[in-house]
């Protein structure tokens, strides 16, 4: 760090132990265990532990070392002990402390920030996620913080890996690992092959993700989620997680909680890092540079990160296959193969023999009753090849002693390539005029051939391109003891997904009718035996483009309101205006003579949102009042009114209470209501927004075990908003008899009404659970209704089921489900001890879900979806052990995911639990290469493979569940970081 006037703001919202949560604390006597280390690091830890603001000029801490301290201290007392012998003192400023040189008079340049006197606005007081009031943790709330130290020792390279390790997160939804493996939780909307976060498993659209408190443009079809994989991990100062409903603070989408990514805006000096990691079949590279400077009236930070990861091929993981017989499961391979399978005019099946080119094939050589089967996963990828560039920067500049300008910019570009299973439509008719035509039964009628075009066209491949921009600017003013802010932001995310190496069925039909062997398409050989010019004529593709934009303007004011017996009440008020827009286009060249517009698919869509909010923090009791059993009592009241241009007006309140009985026990409670307007994905209609398909569905009442049905997927008109009420209770225990021990436990209850969801996720269970889905089943549908659906523009027929075979219609379209009720416990048990050279931290954090019930329709019974496929498991745990000895440190983590039921198959199958171990070893150089740290990490150290899951989708199948397990296996990485 360089000398200058930039202040390092050391906030306390919630300490975490990589990344285990600790609750943001109000001032109290707590156990403090700190080793001898740089003064800035010790001050940061104390500020974080107590949840208090601490401001210190960067030139005051550089080169200074803090002594080791061990014992129970109050906030001011702990800071005083750390500053002992340094020539520095701390003075109260508002509700925090400012550090200055001993003897420095008020008004000296070293004390520029006097927040409650209005002397300057050189830097902001910290605003904790979950509150709009500066310097105060939200009463009654539990904020989990993953700080920079936690990120370094986690062993993870990317932001999505860091967040997805949280026990409160569920891996379902749009993520790069779920693409092509599941259609649940909007996974199919992942246009740019990005990654999302899904708190509580309530859906990516119910988790609000912010960057430095600002909304950003969304990714995915219709703007379904914030793409965490675009955010460079090297740019992150900390990640704050509020796993409670927060619509009263932030508005729509905050039903499940808020993820707020704080960037390193106040970074000083320079930092370079390089990382290489490898697992079986895949490797990754990461390099970054960040630099910051300050001057007497401002600061500037700039950074860049490059990330590259190779593809992870299904062939490198034995469980990524459609043939599950090796695991005791079924064989899902299809007859779309090479050589292919012939379906004769009378419905009989014949396999095309191997070892011939199709030019002299005779009926007698065909293999009657023996279809050729192929594994569609064989040439596909589990994870795409990815290359990302990201740049970011921030600027602060004081325009006057009471006025400051701030600006922040972010840019990311990611290119991904994913090989996918072939999506054969079937029913490829070969007429008698084809030069290679073979009739198995001698009727002289056309035959159907199921054929895999991979040898001819190449592997079907998705190429995704994503570009994201965002900019934020504003003015902040100090007027007396109040702070005023006026700001605006803009964000855009542009995504393109192009699928190549697919047949154009229009030109395929033309070439199949050709009688000239030199130019006709040959489907009857083993391998590729069609003229190259003909293959190129049949080569098709299709493309989808989406663009999300967001504009916002915000005004906020906060400051002291009135002095009460318990202290000074503070108020924050403000107003926001936001405009959102999404536009999507597409081009198809897979069934027409020329490329054609794929249709509007309901785009463009836009809306505007106007909001007003207020939050009041009320201290009711303070320690000096000497009330028995109540050392401190604080309350917060917040409310937010929003008007949507398309869904009307909503008001959502929140009430929070924090009660500390003494130095060892603290309680918290809050209640709030939340609201989420239907997303653009939910309300769009038109071509490409639905799927209508005849399918075979398990049916216990059928003699064959399955029944052909017509399944409806997509949106229904007249969707309404979702509404929820959330309340939590929690307690923190820090027993004095065991210094360093801390237990935090919290109960949460979420009652979600009019929840937008798709029962079609469980389409395979409709006929097996008629009591649940009865209202969505139409038995023996009229012939005319079936014919209407067969003629629909969104119809496709993967199994060639004729209209007369359909015995029922099942309605799996998106709708407002009647209700979802979720309750559970979050907990963290931790111990820490610090000595002169050695320190130790140990503990375990987790989420234990007690109930997760859903009503599909108003008249259906409650369905317990807890620990079932596509939903969160009842328990996730993350244990940690961190040991430091001088320049050496080691961090070990154990991650546990409980088992669950796979009720998508009949009979229901049990999925085993999964435990993995991560380990990171680090060494920090003291003299030679001072400021350099080298780390060796291994995630999934024991190389535990995912548990077996019989997972089938409309297009393919596999033997593992990417929503609850990673296919990467053991990944070993070496990282070098140097500060200069």
Automatic annotation (TrEMBL):
Keyword Transmembrane on entry: yes
Entries under SMART domains matching the protein: STN (SM00965)
Topology with respect to the bilayer: Multi-pass membrane protein
Cellular component terms (Gene Ontology): cell outer membrane
Start and end residues of each stretch annotated as Disordered: 167-186
Compositional bias ranges of the Polar residues kind: 176-186
Domain called Secretin/TonB short N-terminal: residue spans: 52-102
Record Pfam families: Plug, TonB_dep_Rec_b-barrel
Subcellular location: Cell outer membrane
Keyword ATP-binding: no
Keywords: Cell outer membrane, Ion transport, Iron, Iron transport, Membrane, Receptor, Signal, TonB box, Transmembrane, Transmembrane beta strand, Transport
Leader sequence segment: 1-24
Coiled-coil ranges from the UniProt annotation: none
GO biological process: iron ion transport
Matching InterPro entries: Beta-barrel_TonB, Beta-barrel_TonB_sf, Plug_dom, Plug_dom_sf, Secretin/TonB_short_N, TonB-dep_rcpt-like
Family affiliation: Belongs to the TonB-dependent receptor family.
Entry protein name: Outer membrane cobalamin receptor protein
Organism: uncultured Sphingopyxis sp
